[in-house]
Design brief:
- The protein is of the alpha/beta class.
- It is about 15% helix and about 25% strand.
- The protein contains 6 helices and 16 strands.
- It has helices at about 20-30, 60-65, 80-85, 110-120, 180-190, 230-240, and strands spanning about 1-5, 40-45, 50, 70-75, 95-100, 125-130, 135-140, 140-150, 155-160, 170, 195, 210-215, 220-225, 230, 245-250, 270-274.
- The strands form 3 sheets. Strands 6-5-4-3-2-1-16 form a 7-stranded mixed beta sheet. A 6-stranded mixed beta sheet has the order 7-8-9-10-11-15, with helices on one face. A 3-stranded antiparallel beta sheet has the order 12-13-14.
- It starts with a strand and ends with a strand.
- Bound molecules: zinc ion (3 copies).
- One zinc ion binds near residues 77, 79, 151 and 175.
Length: about 270
């Protein structure tokens, strides 16, 4: 299993357009970036690739990393930074299966699969595959399981990707607070590599209107507002999941410049062989 981090950033990316903060300036100086979230997972055994989320930066990411176009894709949720690259399918793919959860979202009255189908009904190559969370499907030679996470007000899913032949396992938290349900934790547990949402460090919770929550015994918030984990929350979750290796992703340019490029914060283009 070859994992390529196509986009390790949050919804504005780093550098953010029009931003001259120290972190965006430092990224430019270092020649690194964090585009909108997407992960490419290649199965060399069957010569197929699975894409996790359609970043608005899809075209640029594939030109930059020169990885094979995917044979199938998963959409974790309907936020812009995970879904709105799907229009890139037009005239690039003859057909593409897109897997997304089949549970109705009380907020929209539709499942992620139904929203994908409705929003991109004009894309003939698209074959939407409604998928039941916590039930394993087989795609690109992998066992793939969507797991509910907490990203209010929308439903959102993390996922585990395992190669049943080699035993390699990748877990992705999806956009989530630290409050990942127990049944989902069981599926995500013991990965060779965990990609965990860690949008900001915990000390920035004081700037969020909703503050932080899910504090440690020492009062350190593991959730930023209600939607995302802090760096500290993501690292706690990684320890609880017994992750062999962890990279923090979905990172905002609000990380102070002296923290933004420290380990284990990911940047675009990192590649892992599991
Ligand atoms: Zn900035
Ligand atoms: Zn989101
Ligand atoms: Zn996001």
């Amino acid at each position: 299993m070859r994992v390529t981090l196509l986009g390790a950033g949050d919804t504005t990316g780093t550098p953010t357009v029009g931003c001259d903060c120290d972190t965006c300036e430092a990224a430019r100086e270092r020649g690194v970036e964090r585009t909108r979230f997407s992960v490419h997972v290649e199965n060399e055994r069957v010569d197929e690739s699975l894409l996790i989320d359609f970043s608005p930066d899809f075209r640029y990411q594939f030109l930059r990393e020169d990885v094979p176009l995917p044979d199938a894709a998963v959409i974790t949720h309907i936020h812009f930074d995970h879904l709105d690259g799907l229009g890139n399918v037009f005239r690039v793919f003859d057909s593409l299966s897109v897997y997304a959860a089949d549970e109705t979202d009380p907020q929209t009255g539709k499942s992620v699969a139904e929203t994908v189908r409705d929003d991109y009904h004009y894309l003939d190559p698209l074959e939407v595959r409604p998928t039941t969370p916590l039930e394993t499907i087989h795609v690109c030679g992998f066992d793939v399981t969507l797991v509910p996470v907490e990203h209010p007000p929308l439903v959102c899913y993390g996922l585990a990707i395992e190669d049943p032949v080699t035993g390699a396992k990748l877990s992705i938290t999806g956009d989530t607070s630290y409050n990942v349900p127990e049944a989902s934790r069981e599926v995500l547990a013991d990965p060779d590599l965990l990609l965990a949402d860690a949008i900001v460090p915990a000390h920035l919770c004081e700037y969020h209107p909703a503050g932080g929550r899910h504090e440690t015994d020492d009062g350190v918030p593991r959730t930023f507002g209600t939607k995302h984990m802090t760096r500290e929350g993501a690292l706690d979750l990684a320890a609880e999941l017994n992750a062999e290796r962890t990279r923090l992703v979905h990172l905002a340019h609000y990380y102070p410049a002296d923290e933004a490029f420290e380990e284990p914060l990911a940047v675009d283009g990192e590649q892992y062989e599991l």
